[in-house]
Every structure is written in C-alpha cells, then in structure tokens.
Amino acid sequence: MSYTAPVKDMLFVLSELSGIADIAKLPGFEEAGLETAQAVIEESAKLCGEVLAPLNVEGDRNPSSWKDGVVTATPGFADAFRQFAAGGWQGVQHPVEYEGQGLPKLIAAACIEMLNASNLSFALCPLLTDGAIEALLTAGSEAQKRTYVPKLISGEWTGTMNLTEPQAGSDLALVRTRAEPQGDGSYKLFGTKIFITWGEHDMAKNIVHLVLARTPDAPEGVKGISLFIVPKFVVNEDGSPGERNDVHCVSIEHKLGIKASPTAVLQFGDHGGAIGHLVGEENRGLEYMFIMMNAARFAVGMQGVAVSDRAYQKAVAYAKERVQSRPVDGSAKQAVSIIHHADVRRMLATMRALTEASRALAYVAASHCDFAHRHPDDAKRAEHQAIYEYLVPIVKGWSTELSIDVASLGVQVHGGMGFIEETGAAQYYRDARILPIYEGTTAIQANDLIGRKTVRDGGAVAQALLAEIAQTVEALKQHDGAAFASMHRHLSHGHDALQSVVAFVVANVKRDPNAVFAGSVPYLKLAGVVLGGWQMARAMLVAQAKREDDPSFYGAKIATAQFYAEHVLPQAVALEASIVSAKGADGVLALSEDQF
Amino acid sequence: MSYTAPVKDMLFVLSELSGIADIAKLPGFEEAGLETAQAVIEESAKLCGEVLAPLNVEGDRNPSSWKDGVVTATPGFADAFRQFAAGGWQGVQHPVEYEGQGLPKLIAAACIEMLNASNLSFALCPLLTDGAIEALLTAGSEAQKRTYVPKLISGEWTGTMNLTEPQAGSDLALVRTRAEPQGDGSYKLFGTKIFITWGEHDMAKNIVHLVLARTPDAPEGVKGISLFIVPKFVVNEDGSPGERNDVHCVSIEHKLGIKASPTAVLQFGDHGGAIGHLVGEENRGLEYMFIMMNAARFAVGMQGVAVSDRAYQKAVAYAKERVQSRPVDGSAKQAVSIIHHADVRRMLATMRALTEASRALAYVAASHCDFAHRHPDDAKRAEHQAIYEYLVPIVKGWSTELSIDVASLGVQVHGGMGFIEETGAAQYYRDARILPIYEGTTAIQANDLIGRKTVRDGGAVAQALLAEIAQTVEALKQHDGAAFASMHRHLSHGHDALQSVVAFVVANVKRDPNAVFAGSVPYLKLAGVVLGGWQMARAMLVAQAKREDDPSFYGAKIATAQFYAEHVLPQAVALEASIVSAKGADGVLALSEDQF
C-alpha cells in the first residue's frame, strides 16, 4: 500500500490532545466520541489507502485534460469520486438536516488529512465543494440551501470558489467581474476568473460556481463585492440541471504539481451573460467569502500535514530497504540499510516531528472550532472561536511552508533516485509547492495573524495561549531525564520568544507598521514552531504517564518530542532575533527598489 | 534578457574579497589581474546572456531525447555548444600547454557561475568535461594527456564521470563493473553505470568516459577500484575517432529537473567488451576520482550560487512589475508593485543575501585553490590547500541546500503564477533539487567535512579561520550605526557557535561517533552560515570605506550585509543548540528502526 493512514497516531491526538471525549459531551455530538471517530477513521482509511492512493501517481502522469471546453479527469477519478460520494464522505462535517453526517470538525480533520495524503489533486474537488457548502450555509437563503446543499453533499454536484482574476490575486479590491440585475431577481455575469480549481470536469452532473462580482452601482474596492451562485447548468424548478449556462472553461493551466486537478480559466458571459443568483446581501460578498475561506484555509493547512505524512511514509520505506555504506560507529562490517546512518535518521526524524506537530496543532484548532459552535456557554463559545481564528492562519501558513521542507527532505533521503520521477518522491515536492500560495499566500496569512488575530484584541488570545504554554513548561519540570530537560528548556525559550514578539507586534503596529509587517511571516513561523512544540510537549507528558501500557508507541512519542525540542524549537530564538532585536524593518527595507 | 550576469558584483568579490591583485602576483598568473578578469567575464556574460540563457526554457520543455541508443540534445544546444567551444570557454582554467587559457580558478569560478545561471542543463556538459580533464591531468600518462586533453578543451570531444551503479551510489565500495586485462595493455570492461550526466549525446564527435571498475584480482571495497578511459569511439593512432566502442546508452532518465541534460544508463561490454585503458596505477582509482571530485564538487556549489541568482533576478523583475494591494504603512492610496510590500521585500532580500554570501564564499575558496597551486612558498601552498579543502564541502553542501530555499522563495514571490510552468520560476525550483544530491549528497559532504577536514588535523584549519573571523568581528566594532552593530553582534555569536561545534566534533568523534555524525549536516550548514556571514561582514567593511565613491552600490552592500546579519546569522545559534546542547545523537537516534 503506498499510503497507510496513521490511525493510531490520529486517535492519540484526538483523544489525548484535542479532547474528543469533551466534544462528545457537546449538544448534538453525543455520538461523536472516540469509538465513532475510530470507526469513521478506519473506514475512511480503507477508501483512501485502497482506492485513492493508487490513483495519485496516475493523476501526475496523466493529468486532467482540456479539449474544446470539455475537461476530462484522469482515468479512474470519476469512478473513485462516485465511491467517495456513495460513502457519504463529502458530508462528514455538514449538518444532518441537509443530509450530512453532522460529525465534529475534529473527526472531519482526520478524514481530510487522509483524503489529501492519499491523493491531493483528487481531494481538492471535495475541499472546494466543502467551501461552497459553507458559503451557502452561511449566507444562502433557505431555498438556496435546500436546492444546492444536499446535491453537493451527495456528490451529484460539486462546488468551486471563483475569486481570482488576472489583475486580482491577493488583492480582491481589484475584482472586475460584473453582475447585472435582470429585474427578475436574477443577474447576468460577465468576466474572467482564473485559477479555478476543479472549475470544469466530468465527475459530476453539475458544478456550482460561487463567484465574486460587482453590481453596477457597487462602491469601489472590497466593499463593493457581492457573492453569486452561477451553476454550470441552470437549475430547473424541480431541482434538476437544465440548460447550459454561459460559463465556459477556455483553458486549464500547465502546472508544477497537483496536475490531476484541473485549474480552469472560466469565461463568464461571452454569449449573452451567465445567469447568477445573489447569495445573501449585496456588497457583503467578501465577508461571506472570508467565513468560507477560514474553512478552506484550515483544510489547506491539513493538506500540508497530509503531504508531509505521505512523503515521510515513502522516505521511511526507502530508508529501510536501500542498503548503502557501513555505519560510522563500526557496529556493522557490511553495508547496512540507510536508516542506520545518523544523517538519514536525522532527516526522517525531522520529517516525522514536523508532521506530528503540525497534525496535532491542526486537530487542536479543529476541536476549538467544535467547541466554538456547540458549547452551551456563550462566553466559552466566543473564547474558543477566538482561539480557532488565531490558529487558522498558523495552521495554514506553517503546515504548508514546512510541508515543502518535509517533501524536499523526502527527495533527499532517496538520493539520486529521488530526482527520478518514476520514484514518486518528487511528486510530493512539486505538489506541496502550491500549498503556501493558494487560499492566501503565507504573507496573507501572516497579515491576517497580525491584523485581525493579534492586534485587534491587543494580543489577548496570544497571551491566553502563552499562559497555557507556561503551565505545560511547569509540568515538564516535574519529570527527570534528558528528553524532559530538553523540552523544558527549549519550550521555555520558545514561550519567551513568542511572548516577546507578540508584545513587539502590539506595541509597534501603529507607530511603525513596516517594522511589524517585515516580521510578519517570521512571526507566523515562530508561532507555528512554538505552538507545535507545545503540542509535542503535551503529547510527551501523556506518553510518560501511559508509557507502561505500550512502551514502543509512547516511547516513540517521547523520543519524537525530544527531537522536536532539540532540532526544531531552537529556531524560535533565531526567529525572534530577526523580528525583535533587528527592530524589524531596518534590515528588510534598507534596500531601495532600484537597489534590487 | 532573461539572465544578466551580475558583473559588477562579481568584480567586487574578485577584487575586494578574493584578492585577485595578489593572485596576479603569482607565477604564471601575471596577466590575470582585475582587467583580464573583467574582459573575460564581460565576454562570457554576452555568450551566456544572449545564446545560452534563452535555451534554458527550451531545454525544459523539449528535453534531450533517446531513440535506439541515440540521444539527441534539445534543438539549439549543439549549435550553442559549438559557439561555447569556439570561444575557448572549456579551457578557461586548464593549462596552456594543453591549449587551455591557464587562467586562475577564481576567474573560472565567475565563468562557471554565469554558464550555470544561464543554462544549468547545458553547463553540466562542460562541468563533467572539466572533471575528465582534471582526472587525466592528475593521473593520466603523458600520452593520454596529449591524446585526450586538447580534444576535450577544444570541445571536439566531451567527458563523463562513471561512478554510480544501481547498487553503488554513495557507497563506491559496492562497485562491480569488471575490467579484464587483454595482455596488450588494454582492458575490456563489463558492467552497468547509471546516472551518467551527458553520458550520450550528439553535440561532439567523441565522448571520453572515465570509468571506475575492478580488475580481476583487485581487493574488495574501495581499495580495489581502478580508473579507466573508455571512449565512445576507440581512438586511432593518429588521434582521430575510430570504431564504435562497446558502450551503449540503453536509456535516459525522466527527471524532476535539468531535463535537457541527458542522464544516461550506460551498458559496458554487452557485445564483447568495451575497450578501456587504465589511468594511473591499478587500485588507485578512487584516489584520482577524489581529486577530480573536489573540482566537480566546487563546481556544483557554483551551480547552487548560479541557480539562486537566476531565481533572484526573475523574482525581482516580477516584483517590480506586478501591481497588487496598497502598502501597510498607508504611503500610497492605490495598489502598488509588490516590491513595496514588506514581506516581498523580505523574501527578495533573503534571496539576495544568500546568493551574495554563497558567491563570496565560493570565490574566496577558489582563490585559496589558486594560491595553493601557485604560491612560491611550500608552507603557504599547504596552508591554502588545507583551507580550500575545508571549504569545498561547505561550498558544495551549503550553496546547494540554500539554492532550493532561494528557488522556492522565487516561486512564492510570483504567487499563483509561480506554480504555472509557463512562468518559468518553477523550473529553478525543480532544477535546484538535484544539486544537494549529485557529486555527493549533503550528508556525504558533511562526513567529509567532519572526517577529512576537521578531525584529521584536530580542527586546526577551522580554528585558523575562526581566528580570522574574530579579527573581522573586532574590525566591525570600530564602526557606528545599526548595520555594523547588528553584524558585530550576530557574527560574534556565529563565531562562538562555530567554535563550540568544532570543539565538540573534535572532542567526541572517537568516543561517540554517532553523536558527532548526527550533527554533521547541521555543522556543515552552521559553517556555511557563519563563513558566508564573514564574507558579508568583510564586504561591509570595504563598502563603508569606499561608500562615497558609489553610494548606491556600496550602500546596497551594507544593507544586504545587515539583512544577512539579522535574518540569516541568527540560525547559527539554533544550529549549535541542535548539535552541542542536545549532545548530538540522543534525540536523533532515540527512535529505533521499527519505531519509524
């Protein structure tokens, strides 16, 4: 099997770090305890390992193709999508009233990880459909919800998000697509959207495009953007797909990776106008899109975890099999499998530690989302929501940035074979490269982390998390041994570094915005390194308490945490130095434009 | 122009950091001063910018192809190679007596950088030919030198290095190719070699394969490997290519990058035996290969510098052109070109600082090689040779590892467009990935750095370099201002970190080899970061003294050095922590094989 879901590790994070037992106490989640999680995860693991994972290489070699406006997915994908839909997997986290399964986001997070680890290109179709569902549930009318959501959940139809235009990438203020009211409540849309993931394909009977556009009298900038539903086939009164709408795929991109996922250029209204319907109120499109984007950004963060794990699994398998050179300590007279060489071990441990830390942080974020939605106490809900929102840009930015490093190490472990496409390690390196770009680049995540998530509340959420980290640091002190000593030392330094940077950001953002934003991505990475390290420390404390029950499994948790403490956490101090000691912008902005 | 050689920057490094004026005082290099360097570099810049750079994308889209044993290079390559050869560029650093130009390696380094920046795939052919020339000059008989070297220098023929076999990658002890003596002084070779760069092609009349193989009674392991010349066409008495030899290209690889460069599987002796001639003495093949590999490893390090610079140039051009979003400091009411955004500026500054530092370190290494070859004083020669040898694995390992990060940042600067192959930024990300692998992986470089270069002399060379760094730290103290304060502080910390790691390596390598080798790559990176930072500091001191002469140019040197100090040098302390405080192997080796 080319991908084996790390079910035991996932369940460990669910039960020991993300409080699945407490989530099962929330109203509506009574059935969603560890047992349910295990059953769901094991079932998903089967589909992902047996059906989707083998198609991953196929999709890379035989990408989706375009001809005369028609996009044909990689052979095998349409059938796999039918199996995925039939299993109810699109509905895992969506409401029962629209025929979803109504499970916690925490369990869905594990399913999303497996889906993406097995086949990143394939998984993008459900990922974008999730986004469309979220947008409709957030802002759609009851009729819109009834018309579209069950069809999206059943997999009969799929969804897309249409934001980007050639001149409007990160800057949505520049969106130009027009929506002209027709007097009957409908609109006609005209414009070009690019980078539309799964914007056209043959896996479903209809495609529900959610499109940002401007109405004729809309104000300029982001305050004049509205959200529209534009289905590929206009939906009849009875809910069946009717006539072909005036939205056409004029080409798909030739990309570095995720080749099976068609990235479409969509032309709206070249033949009289694409019929669309307003979602929610006019000019509030960006606001709705942001709600949906938080979900999509979290999911892209999971993609980072997923591709890291896939790359790790492949590298471990190769390192155990490939025989080359004697060990430096003279422990064998013959060449040994390369996993016995210290540097290969270091690379694998790095891959493993980063994967585990980013997974744990993401799942913890998902659990905050569940508490934020279902906790009976208003104040608690708000508190969890604030933590979730603080964590989303970190999960998105950090998990995806590190996935490139992990995939790159995966190639390196394979040596020369890693550079040969048939080996397969290179695909992860290529695929991962999109993750820190789409759904908001790392810089966009970092701006969000600074602006909406740190400065707006004066650093309160960050401080609350720091206080929790400080408690963990205290708990580490109670244990003996090198592993705990290392984690105590480095997490403590990491805590201090993050605290100092948060204070710097809050104190200087108004007075010297360039200084603060010059350190935005380093701040995001620092937060990831420290919050990820905190999860590793929590895991280590649990593992120590349970060690006797399963010495190998819990021992590995402690060893991986120690490695993280010694090889990843030290970056925190270096990042702090770049942001704070350097007083931010001086070094970054000292070169003028023409000096570059 | 898609690549403009950074001539001014190169000449700055040559004259201010690498002592070109002193090199011109060495016997045989009297003509090789700054003026010659400038003339040579400007001429090379033309060929590279005008002829080779435009073929780079073409090679990626239309790779070299194999049919029935014949390899056809990308259209345009053969003609470009003729121009390259006609210009005398293959002979830049080779002896005049074999029709080379006899210029210092320092000037050659700049030429190698330009060649590789303009077209990495193309440049590999001359790079391997250089290796073959070095091997023949080192160990060949006078007749062999006369027969082969002038033809290789003229570009009539090209050369290859045949080390790797399917079971023998990093571990050459496992080489199995057989060489059977024929009684007439010749041998017949039988075996399979893989990963042979430009192992077969249509750009030259003959290909001179240098092949590692075992004679019948050779001892096992690396002590039983000999070096053979196996030309594609057996060479006639008169030096002309004669009958086709029994070495055939049975396939070429489908690779992640450097696609125009054919990577051949060569089959020796399937039709009776490939005629070969011993180079030097039997069983000393590895020793000769190592001499040649030092040159090749240095050149691969230059490839890292080169691809970094190319990626940097492309990213800067895009960042100046692409308009998106208003600046965070409110300095403009409209969207501005993205170079005005702090994080884009940070990414570009990172790319620039790493490129400049790795270039400076590599050129400085090259100048030590020149002094080592030509200095009239024996002791001085030995001293420079030792420094050169210490620097080679660092130049190779560090410059190539960072080139991946730089190329990856280059993609990121382009946002979504970076992921589209037509943009071209992705090619550098793919191409760069081979650099830390071939000619010895980073781990192999790091083992060399520890074993032969640090431990063997008890850390003496490293300490000598540290003493020089300490002097630079002192000199920085004499200057005021934030830039100098930052560099003083961080270079001082970097010095201490490197000193502590060198001491740790020397003290523990026998007692606890795993602990030391678990930190081998971190040590290599630390040495790169600190020695690169040292060059930036030296550049800064020169720039300060000359600032009035050219305020923009020298000001940029100071600003780039400050950025390096604040954003790159802090890694030194983190790397030291991973190696020393962690006591090395504990965290790395704590997980047993079956726990992965």
From TrEMBL, chains A, B:
UniProt domain Acyl-CoA dehydrogenase/oxidase N-terminal: residue ranges: 78-156
Highest taxon of the lineage: Bacteria
Entry keyword annotation includes Flavoprotein: yes
Catalytic reaction equation(s): 3-(methylsulfanyl)propanoyl-CoA + oxidized [electron-transfer flavoprotein] + H(+) = 3-(methylsulfanyl)acryloyl-CoA + reduced [electron-transfer flavoprotein]
Domain Acyl-CoA oxidase/dehydrogenase middle: 161-270
Listed cofactors: FAD
UniProt entry keywords in alphabetical sequence: FAD, Flavoprotein, Oxidoreductase
Domain Acetyl-CoA dehydrogenase-like C-terminal: 465-582
Annotated EC: 1.3.99.41
Record's keyword annotation contains Ribosomal protein: no
Domain Acyl-CoA dehydrogenase/oxidase C-terminal: 283-449
MF term (GO), any: flavin adenine dinucleotide binding
Function recorded in the entry: Involved in the assimilation of dimethylsulphoniopropionate (DMSP), an important compound in the fixation of carbon in marine phytoplankton, by mediating the conversion of 3-(methylthio)propanoyl-CoA (MMPA-CoA) to 3-(methylthio)acryloyl-CoA (MTA-CoA).
Family the UniProt entry places it in: Belongs to the acyl-CoA dehydrogenase family.
Protein name: 3-methylmercaptopropionyl-CoA dehydrogenase
